[in-house]
Amino acid sequence: MIEPAMSSTSCSASDFCTADTESSSISTLEQLALALGIAGLSIILILQMDQISRRILPPDRLLAKRRQEYAYAVEQCVEYSALMNRQHVGGGKSLYSPKSDSMAWEKIAKSDDAEMKALFEEILDATKAAPVIVAIEQDTEDAADSNEYYLFLAFPPGKGVSTPEAPGLYRKVRVPLVAFCEGMAKGFEGQMTSTALCFVADASSGLGSEMLTSIVEACDNGVELNMQQCPQATISNPSWMFSLALLNSKNTHNITKDQFERIIFALCRLDAWRVRESVGANRTVLFTLPGQASVPLLLPLIQKVFVHERHVLSHDGCCHSVAMGTALRQEYGSSYRQTAAREEWKLVSATPRVISSTHPIAPLRHNRELPDALAKLNSVQASIVEAWMASVDTFLDMKAQERKNFYTPFVCRMGFLMKRSGIGNGDGSDLSGLALKNVLQYITGSRSRALPSEVMEKAVACLSECRANAEAYVEKFKLAVNSPESILIEKCVFTHKSILIGEKTLLDTVQPKEDWSLKAARKLKSCMCCVPGEGDEEDEEEEDREGGSKPKEKIDMSLPGAFATGAGRSKYVDGKAGFAFDPTKFQ
């Protein structure tokens, strides 16, 4: 693997001085040139230190320098994740050989119609295991076209349709990304399924995604296979999504927006098909987008492609998100080498949270005041703030167009689940249990029926454990209200005027109650950057910005998906609506 760029400049000035004294033939002019070179190298090393850079560089150049560092860390993370995946499907640490890996892949070209068709049929065969997604990258050894992006798939060994957790010698296939996904999308469009998808986007440095995934898995509301309980199907922070986000941010090879949408559709359905035996009674696969950094690049595409599926946005205040992100960086540093101790596919294939939660991929470029505000923060804080703001900015932009894109997510405020005081509970009551029940009802599609008592008991116990772990994890990095650091962070957030529309919290945050609604009739007044105050509440629903107060048919907004009833339906089950038929009748 390529080591971080800064290591290439780790040689010291004393090395040059020693060489100078040992060479008596160097002229005075050459000695002067060497001295200037040493001085120049010293300046480069000093500028690598962010604290010095903040004093020397103007805000715009400082931000440009930092963004180069973010981009480098993201690219190295993608490469490292692909290597870990290759190692897993190549037999594990003991058997994998990087030198011979290229020869182990079956290569299918665009023109190989028969081979491509056979591959589609094999993948859609319900009696066989679907492949895992290993990587999305170019093949530098491809003589035909080194600029072509390929999808690397691996079929698990043995019988059965489930993906084994342990590494093994998989059958490996390389296919052209765009051509394969177009054909695979057509295959899934022709396949009837009762499995719903739920996508969790993050604006909390990964706290929300991790907590919701743990809770859903802890419920053990899956199906029983071979006397073993299979947990609810979850696909957490898939590395292929992070690779696609990076590819979308660069897009130097003119992959169109329509093609990206087809790629997203095909690969999400492929991954959901892979875990089809674990979907449980609720027939739901939970996807968590890989970190708040990927939200600006992935969420608009996913929402457009899966408009009738369930969508959750888990958000926290900016100061809380900075504390969580700082704790991650403290544990792992700036390294992307966040390797799971155990060689399990679910852990190996997940994007390292320390990168996806703290390094922005699509930074905000339309905010002229932001560089000056970020320059007052250290590099770690600045990167987390920018990643968080970019995620929230994307959410607000999509909500502004909800009459066109039908974006009505369950907006999950982590303050409720974390049992923080002063958030809609001025009487001191604990709203975490009710908030947990609401979000679980939405994720599992159980709005119209009660969740089993044993499921709620396990969920409450898991939430309590996750909350205690999260509080202990960030204890050293909590930012007190009105502390100098929190004030500087607030100033960064304040430069984004849209986040503070009407001095309210995030639009349509679901309030914990029995008759919860995706469209908030009341909104808390406060900014999003720190622990909000109670604020006043509005009793009237927000009217359509464009349509005004036109007479309209009454819609029950407590029903997930009711707002999107005007959109065209596909052959897939509407993941936001309750089942009107017996899902067990479908494969």
Automatic annotation (TrEMBL):
Stretches with biased composition (Basic and acidic residues): 546-556
Acidic residues composition-biased segments: 534-545
Ranges for region Disordered: 533-569
Protein name: Uncharacterized protein
Organism classification: Eukaryota, Sar, Stramenopiles, Ochrophyta, Bacillariophyta
